[in-house]
Amino acid sequence: MDDYQEHSLGGRVFQKIREDILSGKYQEHDELREAALGKELGVSRTPVREALRQLELEGLVTIIPNRGAYVTGISQKDIWDIYSLRSLLEGMCARWAVEHITEEQLDEMEEIILLSEFQLKKGSGFSAEQITALDGRFHDVLYEASGSRILSHVLTDFHSYVQPARKSSVISEDRARKSIREHKQILRAIRDRDAEMAEQLANEHILHVMQNLKKQGYQTD
Amino acid sequence: MDDYQEHSLGGRVFQKIREDILSGKYQEHDELREAALGKELGVSRTPVREALRQLELEGLVTIIPNRGAYVTGISQKDIWDIYSLRSLLEGMCARWAVEHITEEQLDEMEEIILLSEFQLKKGSGFSAEQITALDGRFHDVLYEASGSRILSHVLTDFHSYVQPARKSSVISEDRARKSIREHKQILRAIRDRDAEMAEQLANEHILHVMQNLKKQGYQTD
DNA sequence: ACATGCATTAATGTATACAATCATACGAGA
DNA sequence: TCTCGTATGATTGTATACATTAATGCATGT
Prior knowledge:
The structure is a homodimer.
Chain A: H1 2-7, H2 9-22, E1 31-32, H3 34-41, H4 45-58, E2 61-64, E3 68-71, H5 76-100, H6 103-121, H7 128-145, H8 149-168, H9 173-191, H10 195-215
Antiparallel strand pairs in A: 1-3, 2-3
The structure holds a DNA duplex.
């Protein structure tokens, strides 16, 4: 699937439009005309149509037959809902990972944490971009480690949805430090095969992220 | 979206192939050739391609660039995972519904329960088809009532995934009776605005379905 | 006999052409 | 003036044609 998204025009068009919707370039109720998009991206209507059909399935676009495609986008409430659900699901994920994680995955998560701490130790010159990327990788590995295609799929989708929101929100150094500490605790619980603890920690980890969002004046309802 | 799936060729092709995968007509690793599918369905490759791209996004098909589309399907473990996650999410759904449900939705769920009991009272001549359809409608309304696009979307997807599995598994009259009783309890809790109770009941409702599956020798790991 | 390279073939990837549908504007009639 | 019908333009829906890529088989050389 990654190969496909990488190499085919349709896949790239899909990613591009998706990003443009999530980043806010295209806004709610904007009409997405196939010909216009194709011209802008330098491709024909065919790949654009494929992309729009995929986006509709994802719920980011609404297609009215013989009329057109309209941006649905995701609201702040949607993002808040996603975090609420992630809190539950990441807990379940950590619980399942206790039974399914491999040594390689444990090592990879360990390494990601070390890299994160290294980034952080740079002091005020640390790259927020790098930190969020590492955070993303940590969660991705955890998703894989659950041993469940289904759960991994849902969580990966959710994660990509809120990615732009995270980028736009300033990540405080304080929050980054605490986040990494929480990652370490989660990893420790999984290593110790303590399912109960792993679930609770992963659960609370997301709740803490939500508290942080709230503090920054994020719409919660 | 329903209009789209209904009226356009691409939408119908998508639904058809999706059903054929979920029902087992196309099995794991089967190759889905665009031309062959188009010929079989009496359409050109274009709508078939759109459908395959959508199915890939859903995880039911894997596309290897310049090679072809292969059925991924869903395993018994996948279905089991879905029920596990549904247990969590339906709980959350019922909790949220307590705050967002409308009078109309309450009435509709009430009516669905009455119709279900009517079907059941027919005795041994009751239609399992009808019962499962009503069960589906009950849950759909509940999903809507959560007031969350995101949650509703995920649960609807999950529900459609396990639908074929439910059809193939014999629904015992005993289980149907208990299921309707549980629906009544859930509805009662929501009416009473008892979020805690609603969540717990919805949660357990799915767990009971899982126990029933297990009793029928369903693979759980 | 086996490996390698090229030609052939069949599939997908993309673009374009044609058909069907919908929105808009204009004009005729009440 | 208002309404309804029609014509026109624009957009989507579908089919087909062309380009590109990958697999297969055969021939050739070692």
